[in-house]
Prior knowledge:
With 523 residues, the chain is of the alpha/beta class. The protein has 15 helices and 26 strands. It has an 8-stranded mixed sheet with strand order 2-1-10-9-11-12-13-14, with helices on both faces. Strands 6-5-3-4-7-8-18 form a 7-stranded mixed sheet, with helices on both faces. Strands 15, 16, 17, 19, 20 and 21 form a 6-stranded antiparallel sheet that branches. The mean pLDDT is 91.
Amino acid sequence: xxxxxxxxxxxxxxxxxxxxxxxxxxxxxxxxxxxxxxxxxxxxxxxxxxxxxxxxxxxxxxxxxxxxxxxxxxxxxxxxxxxxxxxxxxxxxxxxxxxxxxxxxxxxxxxxxxxxxxxxxxxxxxxxxxxxxxxxxxxxxxxxxxxxxxxxxxxxxxxxxxxxxxxxxxxxxxxxxxxxxxxxxxxxxxxxxxxxxxxxxxxxxxxxxxxxxxxxxxxxxxxxxxxxxxxxxxxxxxxxxxxxxxxxxxxxxxxxxxxxxxxxxxxxxxxxxxxxxxxxxxxxxxxxxxxxxxxxxxxxxxxxxxxxxxxxxxxxxxxxxxxxxxxxxxxxxxxxxxxxxxxxxxxxxxxxxxxxxxxxxxxxxxxxxxxxxxxxxxxxxxxxxxxxxxxxxxxxxxxxxxxxxxxxxxxxxxxxxxxxxxxxxxxxxxxxxxxxxxxxxxxxxxxxxxxxxxxxxxxxxxxxxxxxxxxxxxxxxxxxxxxxxxxxxxxxxxxxxxxxxxxxxxxxxxxxxxxxxxxxxxx
Length: 523
């Protein structure tokens, strides 16, 4: 099968001077950006691949990559693909524990990291990896001329290409096995449903989408923020970057766009963005309204997906604004080429047989069930964790269904409404319910920033993150309104300064951390 990196060579020949990636540049004054052409990127990738090969990297070798989102990250990833090796991508927010888990699961033969990351290898299992390189050692001063020959190693469709780690916010992180075939299929799905035109300049705050932009021949602008702390950035800096670099579209997490929208609305700022994609966490109606107000000249789409299937669906922000919150959080209908089913909540692995086909597990009309998916861009398994594959995948002949773990319902037009995680459903006072519909209503209350509904040691808790400016009297009213929203369900109510968020996007509740926080407080 053709190596996915070959498309870069074609882009370098077709539009050598076109900007592929625009990254920040060091400067003592103002904001500086450096543009890297497709020809330069192809040259740097070919040079870096030669260095990797000279160091003994072979096709199929797993290489742990711990490099911040930067031009150097994409040179590194693409050089690994070029050699036919496997890139094991570690998020910028990873700590020593997560690195240790990745090493244990992946058994990498190589490590590539920044200078700062190299310090961690002394304190972690990275020191046991045979081949270690700094990202700086892969740099070149080559010209912008495209290489005369640019062809990555030939690989089989089922060969590993990229491994990404799930967040592990609802349990142990898993290594998602992305083969050459699944990466190519995902790229095609992105082209169909999150399209970029060659003249698009995209501010890309989610790392994996830079690869998709490169395949489509667009320009990716890397945002001036710390990817390890994606909710901590200066909106003024990002807006300056959008204007300075001629950005026409953007993709990022809900937390990223909410912070940007808050600043734009308070300062009466506007952008010239044509299109925005946001995903990685539920988008409630309150945020949808805010995004519509702030980016009033843009098309805003909310994308539903997961590490194993991206995208699942997308929906216009206008449709979220007009939705009925009682149905759950709307995310649109499944994208073309993806089969969507709802299965009755089932804690154990699902094994099909002639006596028990998948239809025997399906939820009835109007019922809430677990969202399961099958299609060409569905990742079929995990690395080094057969139990995770057994638990999260359903085999139906040659077809592989992925269990998302998300509870949802569907209307008669196939549109999906998310209710929360299957494992977070609760039964109290004779009622079984999911957190998201309640959290959505709670977040609509005045002076409420965020909310969480969860069960800890058999008790239902409603946790409110109130605005820092809220008074004691306002917080008292919040609790009273929250009780009315919970509609007679017996709960304990808390107001906290901060509800823990997921580490990747800082956009949704980290239930494991939240449960630990409540359990440790002995409430």
